[in-house]
Amino acid sequence: MTSDEALQPPPRRGYVRFSAKVARAVCVRIAAGETQRQICADPAMPCTDTLRRWARDLPAFARIFARARALGGRDGTGRPSSYCPATAHEIVVRVSEGESLTAIAADPAMPPMRTIFNWRTSEPEFAERLRMAREALAERFSDLGWKLAMEATPETAHLTRVRLAQLRWTAAMLAPRTYGRLKPTEPPEPAVMRTLLVRDFQIETHPETGQRRVVGYRPDPQTLLPTRVSEGPWTDPPDPVAKLAAIEALSAQRKAAQSPVDPDDPEGWR
């Protein structure tokens, strides 16, 4: 290669349009274990930005692409995932038997503590199984505390008390919902906003005829000032004299209905 050829820029890569054939080839190679960098280095394949845009704008391709990465054992950064189901199962069993995560991580055959924490964050199934193992260990500590309390003697009472306090604290940390002093509760439900419609009714009198009607008012949502929203028909005011006569007639009818009539004195002279 001459010096002039070395100074020339590399040939510009052509744009690869989306097609079912290209998308299938990309997903097959990802599922086989290749990285995106290896695939995008192929001139017949799209570049990294193009793959990212396809996964963002095409939901069907995004689902298949994510499934291919899971089959290929790749995490979101393209690196091989270190999660091993067999090792995770052994960790769960050893925790349920009473071994601490610190002791497990110190074992050369086991992953370090950082890896175990990463598995618990990235693998929901492993996190749930580890939580159940810790609850099982709390049950074992509860049974052990009962045994220590039953076997205590006056000479070992102080030592038993110290051990029971530590077992109680450890069980509360492992299973706070069962053995914790302060039981965790579910967060309160958000308050439901309700809008109440309030109406005020007033009696309006006509200045000329003296008639009356019922008028309804409602506060305006913007200014909160009362606004007239309804008006009833005009009616004549009741005559107080006629109303008093009607009340007296009704009272007399009730008295007549309550007092029995003497057949020998129907007019009530006696």
List the helices and strands and how they pair.
Layout: H1 3-7, H2 20-31, H3 36-40, H4 48-57, H5 59-71, H6 85-96, H7 101-106, H8 113-122, H9 124-150, H10 157-174, H11 176-179, E1 200-205, E2 212-219, E3 226-231, H12 240-258
Antiparallel strand pairs: 1-2, 2-3
Helix pairs in contact: 2-5, 4-5, 6-9, 8-9, 9-10
Provide structural commentary.
The chain has 270 residues and is mainly alpha-helical. Among the domains are: 14-71, Arc Repressor Mutant, subunit A (Orthogonal Bundle); 85-179, Homeodomain-like (Arc Repressor Mutant, subunit A, Orthogonal Bundle). The chain is built from twelve helices and three strands. The protein has a three-stranded antiparallel beta sheet, with no helix packed on it. The chain is flat and about 115 Å long. The N and C termini lie far apart (147 Å).
**Total helical segments:** 12
Largest sheet: 3 strands, antiparallel
Approximately how much helix is present in the residues?
A: 40-55%
Q: Could you list the spans in which at least 5 consecutive residues all have pLDDT below 50?
A: none
Mean pLDDT: 77
Query: Structural class given helices, strands, pairing?
Result: mainly alpha
